[in-house]
Amino acid sequence: MADTDQAQPQYKIEYREIQPFGTLKDLPLGLSENARKQSVSILNQVLADTMMLRDLYKKHHWQMSGATFYQLHLLLDTHYEKQAELVDMVAERIQALGGISIATPHDVAEMTRIPRPPRGREDVPTMLARLLEAHRVVLEQAHEGAKTADESGDDGTNDLLVSDIIRSNEPQVWFIGEHLAATALQRAD
């Protein structure tokens, strides 16, 4: 009987938090605690907005319609995948700085600066304009955050924000924005 008791998962445990949100572990990173605290705060905001942008891409991917359905369906899924990579990179940078990254939908809903879309389907121009607005929010925060990280000597956070967040979001803005150009699919003549 003792052997089977060892195989029984002990899932009824008392939950306990081992590091409160908003605190930093002391790590020998060559950065001041203030610099790390600033970067963690900036990065958590970028993370919340990037998670919302990622999920907007998936929502619009599923709900796409119209003459360019197939092309946009594929494009939005490609952009979703890139945003998912960025989410992981930002969250891991926060953890590497000794902080705690946000991680759940309710955290995103509380923190994001991106307006919540309706649950229903929107027309294509509205969906694309909503994505462009979300990118603007992420890019503005990334530019401000990169400057702050540079001033505090946090080269790693500056590099992440410039090399990954900004350089990934800018071409996505371009690709999405071009779909809103007022060009016809066919010539009238």
TrEMBL record:
GO terms for molecular function: ferric iron binding; oxidoreductase activity, acting on metal ions. It holds the Pfam family Ferritin. Gene3D superfamilies: 1.20.1260.10. Residues 42-182 form the Ferritin/DPS domain. Transmembrane segments: none annotated. SUPFAM superfamilies: Ferritin-like. Belongs to the Dps family. PANTHER family: GENERAL STRESS PROTEIN 20U. This is Ferritin/DPS domain-containing protein. It comes from Sphingomonas parapaucimobilis NBRC 15100.
